[in-house]
Design a protein that fits this description.
Layout (H helix, E strand, L loop, with lengths): L2 E10 L3 H10 L4 E6 L25 E8 L2 H12 L8 E9 L3 H7 L4 E4 L2 E4 L11 E4 L12 H23 L2 H4 L16 E4 L5 H8 L5 E4 L3 H13 L5 E3 L8 E7 L2 H6 L1 H6 L1 E13 L3 H8 L6 E6 L2 E7 L3
Parallel strand pairs: 6-7, 8-9, 8-11, 9-10, 11-12
Antiparallel strand pairs: 1-3, 1-4, 2-3, 5-6, 12-14, 13-14
Helix pairs in contact: 4-6
The structure holds S-adenosylmethionine.
């Protein structure tokens, strides 16, 4: 593989956009921006808490890196940029050869199979499933949120897998006459939940997870059109059926309602989500930080009693069961 040449320019936050645009105008193959102070004492956090605005719009000083096919193009680009009247505070950090990479393989190598339970795994299409996996969801990273790598998604899937397993064991242990008549709405030995609502479905990962655990009639809804397309595609790739659409698609009561969004929208959605939970049914909420547990409890208290039932990396899973 041949080398590319990288021009690295250091500039102030205010100049990042004009420098990046100018590099694209002069035919850079790619432009990226990094923190010039990364790993130094001057480094500052750029991200706020989930749902909160970022403390700053950009880094104090940035390195704008542009790739060119050969060294003369990179040098010429540097000369052109430095000649502009707005470039007084821009300087060249380096022009150097970078080995061209197999970008597809590099991206793929960053997504490994994710273990949800010892038996249930999320596996990208280019990977073999681990030998111990008895239930496999095939999912590749895409535009919509939900690859199984985020703790909030993993906790929801873990809840689905463990409760479906428990329901299966109960119904296998139950007598033929009692199997279809349980008060939690489980309709028979092969059905964990006869209806599921996945509210804020993203990639469709939770609805697909429920379908792979023998749930039927799954409504997966989202406000983002990219999520709707992605959920449909991912369901098809897994050979399961989801009824995917905008939130208006949700109708009536469900034995399982699951929503992994964020604390603020979840508080606003409290009356709506609770109204969808069937008698004896479960409500599962994620996207909540540990310190937000009390505010969520209070928001849902008029309808359901939420408890913390799982915790991972500072995120909690909150669940409630409506009395039968
Ligand atoms: C954190 S992602 C979760 C995706 C997936 N369910 C998972 O567990 O990985 C939250 C999703 O909720 C959607 N969303 C946000 N607010 C919403 C609302 N008010 N109604 C429906 N969906 C919403 C977003 O578009 C996004 O796809």
């Amino acid at each position: 593989m041949s080398n590319l040449f990288e021009l690295a320019l250091v500039c102030r936050e205010a100049d990042v956009e004009i420098v990046s645009d100018a590099l694209m105008e002069i035919d850079a193959l790619a432009v990226s921006v990094e923190d010039a102070d990364a790993d130094t004492e001057a480094e500052r956090a750029l991200f706020g808490e989930p749902g909160m605005p970022a403390p700053k719009a950009g880094w104090e000083r940035s390195v704008v890196k542009a790739l060119f096919p050969a060294e003369p193009e990179a040098t010429e680009a540097a000369t052109l940029i430095l000649a502009q009247d707005w470039a007084a505070d821009v300087h060249v950090q380096a022009i150097q050869a970078v080995p061209e990479q197999d970008w597809v393989r590099l991206t793929q190598s960053q997504f490994a199979p994710v273990e949800i339970t010892p038996a249930f795994w999320i596996v990208p299409s280019w990977h073999e499933a681990p030998p111990q996996a008895r239930c496999v969801m095939r999912l590749d990273p895409g535009l919509a949120f939900g690859t199984g790598t985020h703790p909030t998604t993993r906790m929801c899937l873990r809840w689905i897998a463990t409760h479906a397993e428990a329901a299966k064991s109960r119904s296998q242990g139950a007598s033929p006459t009692s199997a279809g008549g349980s008060s939690n709405g489980h309709g028979g030995s092969n059905v964990s939940w006869p209806r599921v609502l996945d509210y804020g479905c993203g990639s469709g990962i939770l609805g697909i997870g429920a379908a792979l655990h023998d749930a039927k009639s799954i409504d997966a809804v989202d406000i983002d059109p990219a999520a709707i397309t992605s959920s449909r595609d991912n369901a098809a790739a897994n050979g399961v059926t989801l009824n995917v659409g905008l939130p208006e698609l949700a109708r009536g009561e469900y034995p399982l309602v699951i929503a992994n969004i964020l604390a603020s929208p979840l508080k606003l959605l409290a009356p709506l989500l609770c109204a969808h939970v069937a008698p004896g049914g479960h409500l599962i909420l994620a996207g909540i930080l540990q310190r937000q547990a009390d505010e969520l409890k209070a928001a849902y208290a008029p309808w359901l009693t939420l408890d913390v039932s799982d915790l991972e990396d500072g995120w909690i899973l909150m669940t409630a069961q409506r009395p039968a």
